[in-house]
Amino acid sequence: MSGHGFHVHGPHDHEVEHVAQHGGDQFTSRVAVLTAVLSTIGAIFGYLGGHSQNAALLYKNEAAIQKTSASNQWNYYQAKSNKQNLAELSITLTSGETREKYVQEVERYKKEKQEIKAEADKLEAVAKAADQKSELEMHVHERWALATTLLQVAIAMAAITLLTRKRWMLFGVYGATALGLLVGVAGYLHL
Which positions are tagged coiled coil (predicted)? Predict the structure, then answer.
């Protein structure tokens, strides 16, 4: 502890500091080292969880942008359809050169609509792929978040173990640690 300023320490921080300054038994030392290792692993899991959440948000944003672009293409397609319909109506109402001009316009609109439709379909496929990537990243984020929480529980239980000196509580520490590590591995493997 510093004599200057304001510091907030958790129970396990105080115990680790006490052992460092005054020495302690092997039990206390081992649990203190375990706590430090769990804190480090938990920090890594927390970082990976934040990274996967950010990636999910970026993919979701990309999906929204592509969906908007696809919608714009479908609106453009609809506008061409309206023009084609008017040209088709004009074919029935006209004759001669004017009629031939509208026949060519109908063909041009059909061709343009095919190109617009292909672009819209491509944009929708990109949006769907980005949505799927986002869902996968959120699933991974949930794994990292759960793993981090389990390690935090293990750290808290280790602190209680140190404070109460009840060795049987180590089973809870080891259990929460094992579950946290298993869930972390599942996150790493994208399961």
Answer: 99-133
What is the tens place of the pLDDT at every residue in 159-183? Answer: 888 888 888 988 999 999 999 989 9
Residue at 146: amino acid letter: L
Q: What is the pTM of this model?
A: 0.69
How far apart CA 76 and CA 125 sit, in angstroms, is: 18
Distance CA 19, CA 186 (A): 35
Shortest CA distance to 133 belongs to which of 36, 77, 72, 66? Answer: 66
Phi, psi of 21 (to 5 degrees): -85, -35
Task: For residue 190, report the phi and psi dihedrals to the nearest 5 degrees.
Answer: 60, 40
Token pair, residue 32, equals 């203190």
**Rounded to an integer, what distance in angstroms lies between the CA atom of residue 182 and that of residue 70?**
41
